[in-house]
Amino acid sequence: MRDYIEHIISDNADARGALKKLEYIHEDNSRTLFVVDDSGQMRGTITDGDIRRALLNGVALSANIKELINDKIKNFRLP
Question: What pTM was computed for the model?
Fold first, then answer.
């Protein structure tokens, strides 16, 4: 089974931090981060595409990712 810990990011992170993390994990061709709160509860996902679209719409790199996440998660299953 794959280790997904590198794909987890705190909902307190900013867009710049998320991009840096996505760049770091780029080696496995994944462009998705799982956003969790302080208690470890999953709050949503964020992709580099989500961040790029936000930047094109004037959102600053310092913006909290809570503003950018996809929180419409219905189901999550590890392979």
Answer: 0.83
